[in-house]
Amino acid sequence: MSSTSREVILGVGAGIAAYKSADLLRRLQERGYSVTVIPTPASLNFVGSATWEALSGRPAPTQVWENVHEVAHISLAQKAGYFIIAPATADLIARIAIGRADDLLTNLILASDVPKMLVPAMHPKMWNDPATQANIQTLRNRGFIVMDPDHGRLTGNDSGQGRFPETARIVENFDAMTGHKQDLRGKNVLITAGGTREAIDPVRFIGNKSSGKQGIALARAAQLRGANVHLIAANMDTSYLSGISITSVESARDMQAALNLEFTSTDILIMCAAVADARPVQKLTEKIKKAFFTSIELEANPDLLAELSVTKTNQVMVGFAAETSNHIESARSKLTGKGLDIIYVNDVSGGAIFGKDVTHGTILLRNGEEIALKEVSKDALSDVLLDHAIRQLG
Ligand code: C5P
C-alpha cells in the first residue's frame, strides 16, 4: 500500500444521485479514507459546495482557475491514491472516455494513473444507449472499474437499470479495488496518542514534542481494517476524525483513568502517546509570579503500560519508545519491563520524527526478532505494526 493510498478523490457528477454521495463520503471517511470532493460545476445544481466542504472538512474546488498558484490539477492528482466518481453521468463518462479536461475533475482524472472506479447513475435509456455503452467499454478496457447501476424505480415514474447502487455495495466494491484488508473487523483497538501535559499552575505545564500524527495514522489504519477504534488523545486536534470514539485527556493520570475504563474490552492496545515521566508535586491554582518561578519539585507518574500489563488477560500490548542513544538495548528492556508484546523504537536524535509524516526505527518482538524500517511513512508503519499485532492475537 502506498503512503498516499488513503487519499481519495470523490468526483461528483451532475445527477440527482449526487445527494446520495454525501452518505458515501461519510461511509468512506468512517473506513479511514481521507476524501477530497471534486464536484463538476453542473453538479452544484444538485448539491452545493458548502455541503461537500462541511462534510469533508476540505475545499471542494470545481475549476482549475481556483487557487491557480497551487496548480491543483497536478498537486491533487499526485496526492490521490484512488478515485471514485459517483454519480458518473452519461456526459461525464463521455468526457472521461474521450479525454476531455474541461473542469478540474476531468483534469485530475487525466493527470493521475491510480485506480479509478465509476459509479454510473442515469435514466435506463441513457445507460443503454450504444454511445454510453461504447464509452463504458472503452473505460473498462483502460482499467477503470465501472459498477453496473441497479435496476428499479428511477426519479420519475419509470423504472429500469440506471439507479445509483446502495452505498454499502459501492463501498464493498471500492474496498475490493483498494485491496484494504478487513482483518480487524469486530476487534477493539485502543490507541493513545499525543503528549500528556502536567500542570504546574493554571497557565504552565510540563509537556513534550509529540504531535499525535503517529497515533492518528494508527487509528485510521485500524479503522480501515474494520476495527472498533477508541483513541485516547492527549492535547491534539481530533476534530477531523470520524467514526472513531475519542476521549480527550490532558495529564498522565487522566490518561490512566481513560485506559482503565477501556482496557478490559480491548483486543489490541497501542500506547503511542508520549507520557510525562513526572509531574509537579503541587498543582497551583494561582499563577506563580516570575520572581518565584525558579524550581519545580517533581514526583514520578505511574508507568501506565507496566500497570496495565499486571491486569492483562488476552490483550496484545504494543508500546513506543523514542530514544536518542542505545535504541535497541533500551527498547528491549522496555519490552520486557513493561510486559509488552511489541515495541517500536524511534530514533529521535536531533528532534527527528516529531511532527513529520515519516519515521525510521526498529520493531522489536518478544521472540527476539528485530525489523528495521528506514524512512517509512507513519501510515505504512501503522499497517506493519497492526500486521504483527494481529499475528500475536492469533
Ligand atoms: O519509558 P518510556 O516513556 O520510554 O516508554 C515508552 C512507552 O511506555 C510508550 O508506549 C509510552 O506510551 C509508555 N509509557 C507509559 N507510562 C509512562 C511513560 C510511558 O505507559 N509513565
User: If you consult CATH, what is the topology of the largest domain?
Assistant: Rossmann fold
Helical residue percent? Answer: 25-40%
pLDDT averaged residue by residue: 93
First CA to last CA: what distance? 23 Å
List bound small molecules: cytidine-5'-monophosphate
How many separate structural domains?
A: 2
Coarse structural class? alpha/beta
How many helices does DSSP assign? 13
Poorly predicted sequence stretches spanning 5 or more consecutive residues = none
Percent of residues in β-strands = 15-25%
Question: What coarse outline follows from CA principal-axis ratios?
Answer: elongated
Biggest sheet features: 8 strands, mixed
CATH level-4 homologous superfamily of the largest domain: CoaB-like
Strand order of the largest sheet: 12-11-8-13-16-17-18-19
Taking all Cα atoms into account, the compactness measure Rg is 25 Å
What is the CATH class of the largest domain? Answer: Alpha Beta
Keywords: Decarboxylase, Lyase
InterPro entries: CoaB-like_sf, CoaBC, DNA/pantothenate-metab_flavo_C, Flavin_trans-like, Flavoprotein
Pfam families: DFP (PF04127), Flavoprotein (PF02441)
GO molecular function: FMN binding; phosphopantothenate--cysteine ligase activity; phosphopantothenoylcysteine decarboxylase activity
